[in-house]
Design a protein that fits this description.
mainly alpha; rod-shaped; 147 residues
């Protein structure tokens, strides 16, 4: 016990013991701080994984929705092509009927005048139809026929 008393009275021993104690305390604080950081990083990694999983799910839903939109557009395009074909068929049949009925019909005469480039007023006077009918005939059968 007397040796202990001697050591406790020795200033160099007290300085070394205090230094070692402070060093161990410092290592403890650093270790605790690092442990807290590692725990925070693990929490952040879990959040990122969860967010990435949600983002992946949303992207896959968006991809499915995009594919559905493409399919709907393809159906629309197909219907559009069918309608265009029907319109062309109706125009062909209309021209065929116009040729078959002959020039006795007022509307047929109006169509002929419109194709020749006559104005609406000229068509009204020559064919004997109303202004509204002449406008429609000129619009659909005039030289600037819509495509």
């Amino acid at each position: 016990m007397s040796n202990l008393v001697l050591l406790s009275e020795n200033p160099s021993f007290i300085a070394v013991a205090t230094g070692i104690s402070l060093f161990l305390l410092f290592i403890g604080f650093v270790g605790f701080h690092l442990l807290r950081k590692v725990t925070q990083l693990e929490t952040d990694i879990k959040k990122v994984r969860f967010d990435a999983s949600n983002a992946l799910n949303e992207l896959s839903k968006l991809g499915m929705s995009w594919n559905e939109c493409i399919k709907i557009f393809e159906k629309f395009e197909s219907k559009h092509d069918q309608i265009i074909a029907m319109v062309e068929q109706v125009r062909f049949e209309q021209e065929l009927l116009t040729k078959t009925v002959g020039s006795d019909n007022k509307l047929s005469k109006a169509i002929e005048f419109a194709r020749a480039g006559s104005t609406v007023d000229e068509i009204v006077k020559k064919a004997g139809i109303s202004v509204d009918e002449a406008k429609a005939v000129a619009r659909f059968h005039g030289p600037n026929e819509p495509s």
